Each structure stands twice: as C-alpha cells, then as structure tokens.
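A protein record in our archive is deliberately plain, so that people and models can read it alike. The record that follows is passed on verbatim for readers who wish to inspect the format.
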Amino acid sequence: MDDHVAVEESAAAELRGDWATAYERHRAVPMFAQSLHGGHLRVMADLGEAAPDWLRTRFVTTLVRRWEVYGQPRRAGRVLQHVVPVVYPHGIPFAAIGCDHVEQVMTFIFGRDWVLRQADTYDLGGLSDLLHLPAAAGMVATASHLAAWNRAPMGGYRVVGADGEVAVVADAETGEEVELLDLGLTHLHEVGTHVLGRVVPTSSAPGRLFDWRALPIDGRTAAAVARHPERWLKILAARGASRALPEAYSHLTDTSLTADLPQHAWGALLGQPVDEDLPRPPRSLAADALRAALGLAVDEADVRRQRHLVAELLLDEALDARTLARFATSKHRTAWQTLARELPAYAARRCDEALWMIDASTTEGLAG
C-alpha cells in the first residue's frame, strides 16, 4: 500500500512541476531504485531553476509517456496500432532489440524506440493532450517552448560538424545549413552522417536544437523526409517494408536527458564505445572516469573537445557526493577550475561544489 501511495504522490508532484518531491516519492518505491525516469527526475530536482529552458521543455516531453500514471485513458493501444507496424513491418526482432523474455518487449519498445516516441509525442497528439490537461498546468508552466516544439516538423539532415558549443547540420534535400546548440552530436555521429530529427527553439544560443537525440538514417531516406516532412511516417513505413532500412533501425539504447547522447556516454572517457549500454554503471567506473576527466584538464582544448562527455559524468547518479569528495583536493584545484570554465553551466555546478570542498578543507587545515 505504501508503494501505491508513493506512486500517486510522485505523479501528483510531477503534475505540479515539483520535481524535488516527485523524485523523493518516486525513489521511495524499491522497484524504482534504478529507473531511468528517476534519474531524470533527480537531474531536474538538483538543477531546479538553474536548468536551461531547453532542458525543462525536453523533460516535460518525456512525461507524455506517463499518461496512464496521471490517471488518464490508456494511449498504448493507438500507439501499438498505428506505429509498431510502421517500425516493425516484418515482425518484432526480439534478439535485435535485446529482449531475453517476451515480457520485456513492450517495455523495450516503448522505452527505446525513437520512431514510436516521436509519433506518440507529436503526431498522435500526446504533447497536445498534455498541454490541455488542466491538472498538468503546473508542469506545463515549467517549460517555456512546449507549444512551439509541438508544431516543429520532422526533418532530414546531414551532419556538417561541431565545435563544442554549436553544431551545424544541413538540410538533406536543399543543403541549407542550420546551426544548433551542440549537445554532443558529433561524439555519436560522424561528419557526413544523415539523421532524422525535429529542430526546435530555445533561449540558449544559437536559438535551436534537436528536441531529442537524432536518429541515424541513410541519405535517401533523410532526403525524402526533408522533401516531405509531413509524410515522414509513411516514408519510413515504405522504406521498412521494402527492407531498405536495417532491422530495428529505430531501436536505440537509453537516451540522456541532458545531451544528444546515449545514457552513460561518459564511459567513452575510459575508451568504451559511446553507445555501449551501461544500465547501472558502478561508482568505481565513475571514479575512474572522473580521474580521466581531471587528467584532461591540463589542456583546455582537450576539455573543450570532451566537454559533453565530462558534463554527462558530473550529472550522473553514479558520481555521488562521496566520490566527488575523493577528488576534491588541492592537487586537483587547477583541473576543477578549468572544467568549471569550459563545461556548460548546468554541469559546472558540480565543479563549483568540488572547489568549495577544497576551500573548506584548506580553511579547516589552517584553523587547525
């Protein structure tokens, strides 16, 4: 019974936009101790008003998937009816999406399929429903660009490059270049890769970004979507049915909330593939990655190149206060200062925390 009460209280707090309470009540349920949603809630609770507008808006779009938790009619039926046949015209490839048991299939598809998420959130009216749900007024008020995001069309693009702060993509049909807030795009997609995504507004320079991690796709499909964005689902259906698209092409690993990268992409700081699935990385791995990140800080250019991976590490639950404190020593002061200058502000807060620990310990030592 206590678990049911906690779920209800967490859902009510989400609808109010009270992320701190929502996180506390969500994590009070033992089976949610490792949930991805709980991790997202923790980031929002920790950042509070310091969260940039694009992050607040992006987070609220993820809550479309929690429609039933908010006591609303089930949406799963229409998603299954309209989208799953588009993505899996030849049947669901259990092995390709990593399912060991049939009971996992729906969870994996709803949690990780990119096409299904996009269609559910935008094309099938999920975000529109949330915008017009009276009980969600507090939640909606936390995100300043929801209506504009809801109108954004799907697009097909070619990755041109990135400098750590601004990413450039080109329309796959016209070649027109678009500058986006870089959230690690080229860590995952090489220059020349074609992707699908929705370009949406933000108050952060240069004023636009992808609403979610982009989907890699072939150039022909990207160009077709760029020509006819309103037909993007039909284009994918036809390409999938003809087997022009690979099996499970839209099934991704869990996606980070704070970057256009997979969850735990910071493992790449230790030489692991950026898209390696690390469901629950141990704290020892986070400690090793932090040691590597501090080692990068001897060269500002190296930090700039890896800034998104380091930011992801500092925001991850695996890097707890105890691990941070281990490296908050005068030996690393200069490195922390370099990271604080080069990282996005929402991640640099952890650097400030480490520097405060260093200053506090130095003051105590002098007083002693």
The longest strand covers residues 154-162. The chain has a mean pLDDT of 91. The CA atoms of residues 4 and 315 lie 29 Å apart. Residues 1-75 form one domain.
